[in-house]
Design a protein that fits this description.
By secondary structure, the protein is mostly beta strands.
Length: 307
């Protein structure tokens, strides 16, 4: 039996032919398609969104002038235009009908390759992509540090009255201002630490940023209360620095809620003190507690006797 031996040069030639054949059969191996479109598209009033693609030929046999990218979106094919952002980048602007939460699309790129037998048509394409249209997103914290009780604004889009701000896993007192702004009161947490701020809602959690809680002190005058039922007495709170924009909430609790009648305590913006009136309720003995100031908690003894 006689066997013909294949020379090394012929082996290399056959390998090159096979490689080129595979490249011709698979456009994705000949050109690289990179989707530069963000997976989430922030909603805008025009409802117009830009889809961007980068096309990178891997072989010099690809005819550059023949590359004609298209986007297939909502079952329709649209030609893409060259972008001014760089070579090989293409864009297409598409207006989405109002009320939609997502849009599905993929890219199709026909092109030609030079072969020994002339030009040959080929194409490359991407997988189907589902881009989400985001109606809510957070832009920034108004400030990134402050004391306990400070009112801090969060700016963004798509807020609702059901939104809650969390410092780490602790829910803060949150106020809905408008679809573009909410605010929260820095809760009584350990000072001199950084906390991860999250926006929580039925749609899930969204990162907001990092907030540092600064230490602060508080003086209360008088330092204790002795009242009869129905009697009223002023109580003054002093802080070392002027209250921030929105005022400074002093979050106060008590173990004798039926014995103490008092309003919410907010040091007005730009002020360092506030005076409120405390009224004696039912007879009882206990304390007022203010967390987050000084050594961690301010304790004001309260005694209420009957008329």
């Amino acid at each position: 039996m006689h066997t013909n031996r294949i020379s090394p040069a012929r082996k290399i030639l056959l390998w090159l032919v096979a490689t080129l054949g595979l490249a011709l059969l698979s456009g994705c191996d000949t050109v690289v398609l990179t989707n530069l479109t963000a997976p989430s598209l922030p909603e805008n009033p025009s409802q117009i969104y830009t889809f961007t693609l980068r096309v990178t030929p891997k072989y010099s046999t690809v005819v550059g002038t023949s590359i004609s990218p298209k986007i297939i979106i909502d079952g329709q094919s649209f030609p893409m235009k060259r972008s001014s952002f760089g070579e090989g980048i293409y864009e297409f602007e598409y207006q989405v009908s109002g009320g939609r939460d997502a849009v599905a699309y993929y890219f199709l790129v026909p092109y030609q390759m030079e072969t020994q037998n002339g030009l040959r048509d080929a194409e490359a394409y991407t997988e189907i992509v589902h881009a989400k249209i985001v109606r809510r997103y957070v832009l920034s914290l108004e400030v990134n540090r402050g004391p306990i009780g400070a009112r801090i604004s969060v700016l963004g889009r798509g807020f609702s009255a059901q939104d809650t701000i969390f410092l780490d896993n602790l829910a803060a007192r949150t106020t809905y201002e408008s679809p573009n702004a909410i605010s929260f009161i820095v809760p009584a947490v350990e000072a001199s630490k950084n906390y991860r701020v999250m926006l929580g809602s039925a749609a899930g959690n969204s990162p907001v940023g990092t907030f540092r809680v600064d230490p602060s002190s508080l003086n209360v005058s008088p330092s204790s209360l002795n009242l009869r039922s129905g009697e009223r007495q002023p109580l003054t709170f002093n802080v070392p620095v002027s209250a921030p924009p929105g005022g400074l909430l002093i979050d106060i609790t008590t173990d004798v809620p039926e014995s103490v009648i008092m309003p919410e305590i907010i040091v007005p913006q730009g002020q360092t003190s506030v005076t409120i009136t405390v009224e004696g309720g039912k007879a009882g003995n206990g304390s007022l507690f203010i967390k987050g100031f000084g050594a961690g908690e301010v304790n004001i003894p309260v005694s209420v006797t009957g008329k």
